[in-house]
Design a protein that fits this description.
By secondary structure, the protein is mainly beta. The chain is built from one helix and ten strands. Strands 3, 4, 6, 7, 9 and 10 form a six-stranded antiparallel β-sheet that branches. The chain has a four-stranded antiparallel β-sheet with strand order 1-2-8-5, with no helix packed on it. About 8% of the residues have low confidence.
């Protein structure tokens, strides 16, 4: 038979790994951001905007993070036609917000909502057009990496 103090220690030893694991950030199956097509006024089949909307506290590495340490996870928009072929387009990315990382220098990120201007060069691309924004981000409020992302949307026009 064990003493009450020994039982408490055994209980603590058995439950400690579960308690520590529950304190870690959980991997999410859904990245906390989304993209959607915002039509130009007047509507144009070749000129429009793709809006990136991140949840509160989420930063996404800009297309040009201006820091070699993050270039491999920079936000990049790919456009495909109905056949799955890449569409030739001029994509204009915003600069983003400058962040001083301290040890790795400055970094540029997208925060909250940013608009990415798109001009389709081949006006005969077969619709619907599908968009994929690849990149990565982090939660600045809880200080942890969210990992890589791929966000999708479709334009039917």
């Amino acid at each position: 038979m064990t003493s009450p103090a020994m039982q408490t220690w055994l209980l603590l030893i058995v439950t400690l790994p579960a308690m520590l694991q529950s304190a870690e950030p959980k991997a999410s199956t859904k990245f906390p951001a989304a993209i959607r097509v915002v039509e130009s006024k007047p509507e144009s089949p070749t000129h429009f905007t793709v809006r990136l909307q991140a949840e509160r506290g989420v930063d996404i590495y800009a297309h040009n993070p201006k820091n070699d340490a993050w270039k491999h996870v920079a936000a990049t928009l790919t456009i495909r036609d109905a056949n799955g072929d890449t569409v030739d387009a001029r994509v204009t990315y915003p600069d983003g917000k400058k962040i001083d990382t301290g040890y790795l220098g400055d970094l540029y990120v997208y925060r909250d909502s940013v608009d990415i201007a798109v001009a389709i060069i081949n006006g005969n691309a077969k619709h619907p057009l599908s968009f994929a924004l690849d990149g990565a981000g982090y939660n600045r409020l809880r200080s942890f990496c969210l990992g890589k992302m791929q966000l999708h949307t479709v334009r039917n026009q």
